[in-house]
Amino acid sequence: MSRDIDVLVLGGAGVDTIVYVPELPLPYADSYMIDSGIRARAGQTGDFVALGLSALGLRTHHLDLLGDDPEGELVRALHREKDIPLTAIPQPAGTKRAVNLVSPDGRRLSLYDSSRGHPDDRLPEATVRALAEASRHAHVSITQPCAHALPVLREAGVSISTDLHNWDGVNPYHESFAYAADVVFLSTTALSDPERTMRRIVDRGRAEVVVAMAGAEGAYLLADDELTRVPALTPPSPVVDSNGAGDAFAAAFLFGWLTREAPQRCARYGAVAGAHACTVPATVADAIGRDELLARVAAAEAGTTAR
């Protein structure tokens, strides 16, 4: 069977409105003047993973529900600009939207519009199956309705990854994703004991690797039953925004994983890409390229600075 797609990305397409605020949490006031502007741009988790994978030279295809609305056109335009194939299934409720408040130190507070979808929404099984059978790997966003596609992906014989984001280890919504994926990413934000949650994912599911990202404190890597700490790397320029850092980490990790690198090296790829993403304003859709990634990883391993 021909596998012409390296990674099929499911879900996570949408538009964010970016607002740079003076601080977080934002104190109550009647109004604030936002001198930097308030901007809507295409790019939610699936878009940014697809962008990161494509920038690293992986043949990437994105599948999701999109509305016939201005926000949907922004998403389509981003994929055209970046030459990332997109299969958009009509979504009568409209394209997913969010508002991201970003503080001067790059921290983010996201407000998600949960009205843009319905519990009975589905990605067409025939479409999922056809794309999966042409793919080596599938990265599944936890957005509705991607959980329903997991059995079809497994039947098609592709490996699966997912990002649980700020899962608390308890919410049952995330479990179908956590236990169906071969590679699982999540944040430590809501976890009191990251190792316990990571090991439960492995014990109850099929994950070969679990990565818990801890922002500026680095990440935890569970592979071959061994938990190791992945140090954060100093960004190559000032931190301006943490939007998309986790997506960049996941994309670079998968680049290494799909090229059969050891998990520890995959994690270094992720750390470099995540640090790079923190230097890119959220209003800009940009991702680290393969040559720069490899150069920065080599420099980090040698204890020098890539230029």
From TrEMBL:
Signal peptide: none annotated. The keyword Kinase applies. It holds the Pfam family PfkB. The keyword Amino-acid biosynthesis does not apply. InterPro entries: Carboh/pur_kinase_PfkB_CS (IPR002173), PfkB_dom (IPR011611), Ribokinase-like (IPR029056). PROSITE patterns: PFKB_KINASES_2. GO terms for molecular function: kinase activity. Residues 49-284 form the Carbohydrate kinase PfkB domain. Keywords: Kinase, Transferase. This is Adenosine kinase. The lineage of its organism: Bacteria, Bacillati, Actinomycetota, Actinomycetes, Kitasatosporales.
